[in-house]
Write a structure and sequence with these properties.
The complex is a heterodimer of chains A (136) and B (164). With 136 residues, chain A is an alpha+beta fold. Chain A has one helix and seven strands, in the order H-E-E-E-E-E-E-E. In chain A, a hairpin with a 2-residue loop joins strand 6 and strand 7. Chain B contains four helices and five strands; from the N terminus they run H-H-E-H-H-E-E-E-E. Classes of the chains: A alpha+beta (136), B alpha+beta (164).
Amino acid sequence: MTLKGQSAVEFIMLVSMSLFLLLSLVTISTQHQEQLQIHSSLVEAQKVAQDISFQAEMALVQGDYYHREFVVPNRIGSQNYTLYIVPSTVVVELERDGNVTMPSLYAGNTISHQVETDQNDLKIVHNDTGIHLHEQ
Amino acid sequence: MSNKGQTFTTDFMASIVIFGFIITIFLTMWNLGLGTQEELTNEEIMDQQATRTMAIMTTTQGYPENWPSNIGTREDYIPGFMGENHNLEQQRIEDYGNKDYEDKRDILRVPEFQITFENEEAENLEMGREPEDASYIIVKEREVTIKDEDDVQTPTKMRYIVWG
């Protein structure tokens, strides 16, 4: 009676192959998505670093009593982040995906600021004690 | 009567090939769509930095106020040539030009640079080096007015070149 079971065996083989292919596809796709998310976070962090660099440079050259309000993203790629502004460099430190460093003309005091969720309206101020960055 | 089922037939193999082809096309298109947001290249970062530097040089007095005549490390300066009435001050430009190439370069935070000022009287001023062995060259130009010590104003084309 071996002839009767042949289709069932082939069917099981087919289903197994299909499941294997599907699993491979999902695994590759998930890995690719994760890479894209990291990539997207780093691109956004670069843009934030460029913006912060410009704000810090302008605050410094415009002199005392300068202040300007601006908005940064709440989170970058669904993660919190910290800004470091040091002479010649701006660093955006992401909670999970590492750091992005951007060259800058900034030549003032070192500033660090952790961006809190829902407190992304920032104000940069130049006063007697230097450049300061804080929430509005 | 065949002792095989009807699953692994030529039709089935053909359908697998067609399915594989379609899924490959789909994934390729999907990746292309998602992958368009590229990270900034070194050239793009340098280009944006050059745009900001040019803007700061031509629209601000720099930092500190008397920066070109100061002595300090590169991290103490932001270069700005603007004086009163939004004109560039010739004295600031000359003070900067009198510095060593390395100092001038370090103040701009670039690996190599050239700044030229050209006016209609052909009284041109050139700082820095000619671009060579460059894989990319970034050029920023602005029409500016330079005011000298006698308050004579000269329309000038300022060109800032960096490369990497």
